[in-house]
Amino acid sequence: MSVVILSEIEAINKSNNFAIISIMSTKTWVMVGMTIGSFGGSYLPVVFGVDPFSFTTILTGAVGGIIGVFIGFKLSN
After folding, report:
1. What string of DSSP letters covers 6-63?
2. What does the angle CA 12 – CA 14 – CA 17 come to, to the nearest 5 degrees?
3. pLDDT tens, 5-49?
4. Least crowded by CB within 10 Å, which of 26, 37, 41, 68?
5. Residues 6+ apart with CB under 8 A from 56
6. Can you tell me the distance from the alpha carbon of 56 to that of 30, in angstroms, rounded to the nearest whole number?
7. Looking at residue 76, what DSSP letter applies?
8. Are 35 and 68 in contact (CB under 8 A)?
9. Which of 5-9, 38-42, 54-58, 71-75 has the lowest mean pLDDT?
10. 3-class DSSP state for residue 77?
11. Which residues, including other chains, have CB under 8 Å from residue 57's CB and lie 6 or more apart?
12. 19-29 exposure pattern, b = at least 16 Cβ within 10 A, e = fewer
């Protein structure tokens, strides 16, 4: 069973290099980018020792979300 699935995936990858990107809609890519970007942006100050409940984490989370939306939009087009 897994051999058949792998061969189908290989066939899709050979025919279309961006098969997964074309399956997902723009809205989905933007939401994924926003989620990952805001999480990463909020966690980055914590790595450097800032309090997790400070204004800095909120601000960097917003910036990370905006960057994530931009990257998600660029990936979808």
Report:
1. HHHHHHHHHH-TTHHHHHS-HHHHHHHHHHHHHHHHHHHHHHTT--TTSHHHHHHHHH
2. 80
3. 555 555 555 555 555 556 678 899 999 999 999 999 999 999 999
4. 26
5. 45, 50
6. 24
7. H
8. yes
9. 5-9
10. coil
11. 42, 43, 45, 46, 50, 51
12. eeeeeeeeeeb
How many other C-beta atoms can be found within 10 angstroms of the C-beta atom of residue 15?
A: 8
Q: List the structure tokens of 53.
A: 């409940």
Structure token digits, residue 67: 């960057």
75 and 21 Cβ atoms separated by less than 8 Å: yes
Token pair belonging to 6: 């792998």
Tokens of 30: 């933007």
Tell the residue number behind the tokens 């984490």, with chain if given.
57
How long is the chain?
77
55-to-37, 46, 62, 77 alpha-carbon distances in Å? 17, 12, 11, 34
Q: Which of 19, 22, 2 is nearest to 11 (CA)?
A: 19
